[in-house]
Structure formats: C-alpha cells, structure tokens
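Quick one:
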Amino acid sequence: MRSVLAGAGLVLFLLVSGLVAQQATASRYLVTWVGDADGADSDFLAVLDVAPGSKTFGQTLNTVPAGERGTVPHHTEHDFTPGHPLFANGFAGNRTFRFDLHDPLHPALLGAVSAVPGLAFPHTFTRLPNGNILATMQARGPDLEPPGGLAEFRDDGTAVRWASAVNDVDPGARPYSLVVLPAEDRVIVSTGRMQRPAGFAAASALDHPGFTIQLWRLSDLRLLKTVALVAPPGSRANIERNPYELRRTGAGEIFLSTGSGGLYRLSGLEADTFQAELVFDFGSGAYLPVVVGRYWIQAVSALRRVVALDVSNPKKPFEISRVQFDERQAPHWLALDESSHRIVVANASAESEARLWMLRMDPTSGLLSVDDTFHDPGNDRRPGVSFEREQWPHGKTGRGVPHGSVFIQ
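Output:
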C-alpha cells in the first residue's frame, strides 16, 4: 500500500509541477484588434489579461483607439516580435496601423502605414530576418481592382520595396497569405480573395475567388512561378477555390488551407518543381490554422468547429480531435501561445457572437479542449469572454468585434 501511495503522490507532484511550470511560462497578455460594431466610434486595440491564476484573468485591462472608424479590423501579425511595433490592418478602410506594445498595459498608437505606389489593401504580415514586415497586397489601387502584389515595410511604416503579382495564369491574382523561407531565398504566396467590403462596386471579370499559388524569390521580390491548384476527380466542387492560409511545420512541410475547405501539401521550391497536392477535405471553408508539433489545428468556420489533424504523414493527414461550438459561433482567427499551447479563437464577422474563446492543446496527444477558466468575471458557467458590452477603458462605445489577436509575454 505504501508503494501505491508513493506512486500516486509522484503522479500528483508531476501534475502540479507541470501546471506551475505552465503558469510560469504562459504569456501574460493577449492583444486583440477590435472593430466598433456599429461604425459610430473608433476601432481599437484591446489588451486582455491571460495569465493563468491572475486576479484579473480574462479581463480587458486597457484599450487604445485607432482614431478611425469603419475600417473593419482584420489581420494583425500572427506573432508578436519584441522590440517592434504590431501591424494591424483595417481592410475595408485600406488602412494599416502600428501599435507600440513595449509596455502592454499602456499600448500606444504610432500611426498608419504609408501608401505603396501601384498597390493597396494590405492583408497578411510576416516579420523578415532583417526586422522589416513583408505584406501581401490584395489590389493595385484604391478601387480594389486586382492584381495585387507584395510590399516590404520598415517599422516606421514606410515601404522600402514592392512588386506586382501580375502573371499569365491568373491576371486577377490577389496575394492573401504567405510563408517566408529565408534559408531557401523563397516566399510562397496564396491568392485567395477577401470578401468585398460594403461600398465597393463589383470589379471587372478579373475579380473572382482565387485558385493559384505563387513562388517568389525573397532577395529581389521576383515572381518565379504561378501554379493553378487542381482538385482530383471525385473531390468536392471548387475545393481548390480561395487559397488562403500557408504554414510550415517543424518538419519542414508546407501546407495550404483553402476557403473552400481543402488542405494542400506544397512541394518543390524551383519554378519547374513547384506544385500542390490535395491531401484532406475539412468539409467546408477553412480559415486560420496554427501548428503545434505534428498537429495542424484548423478553424472551420461554417461547420462551427476547430479541428486538429495529425500531419506526421504529410500525404495522409487524419483528424485526431475537434472542438464543436454552438450555432452563434463561426471560428475564424486562431492564435497560438507557444509557451502554454493555448489557442485563442475569434469569430468570423459581426454576424457571429462577439466573443473570444480559449482552447487547450495537448502537444503529445493532439487533443483539443475548451479552457473553461477563461470567462467573464463573475460568470463561471459559460467559457469565453464577451465583447457584447457598452463600456470600454477608452469610453462607452458599445459592442466590439474582435478579430486579429496575438499573445504577448
């Protein structure tokens, strides 16, 4: 009996030690880029306490208005780089803002990013080894007409170089997301189309859901190859449409999820070998993913779920777990806290509930679960933090719609 109790004590000690270690290393803050729902007041950046065990866990600690309204806050950078500002785009307003987060409790607006000659509507941002930001640009001008391109920005918001995505395969290419491969001197770009904001007339016949991926050279931003995605016989109709998010796994595999629910494996980093193969069907539109070890975790908005795939065999991924949400949710944005393997979930649009959820992810088993400790103060019965509120630190501006979010240590 003594040995059994000793063994149980050891297990308990290890569990408690693991929890303490997680709390010690977990990110302290989450910053979320928020749209004012009725467009009457400024869009803003919110800072939440996400430190496990904190007395203010789940609470909004501060906000900073962007000074503009109706921009429809969309993507921020996916990861925060200390010592640099955070870039955040208000897509409908063709505006990208920079925020100083060196003191997360007192965020500061640094101003907007400058215009790029011949390109407009930034979408996705990735930090380069030189500290600059490389951004996808969805259009060539303020009327939202394609093609778009790529642009590199300094921290002060000035553009240092840019290039068009014009090509012979799809003249209407709209760069959407990207994965930067510095060691290989390559950038891979997807060309899905953003939803056309209200107030923009339909463009020409060039304006369509994307269907291509592009291979670029990083050193001189030269477009090397544009390849059309192909759906094999028997696939769901249009599964290749709207190629959205690209990520590279720790094993070096590159995958692409489409807005129509396909998962493609990409290979070949030369113009004559660059290709993509459909390897999984999520069943409906797939939006932002995060990667933890051998697991690809995907938001599947229309089906109201977040799904974890095991991609250790990159040609045959399989589902390992999922979290299913209720009918008011439409999971879209995911952000990973690498130190604690927590994942924040934001809904797709103003039509969904204005709410942030937190998931836990077991990096060994791949199992996903809802973190029910992340909830509004005084309401421990329903997980998640609501943005359906009137009062914020910057004033009584009403319901906010959170989207791009990122953890900060």
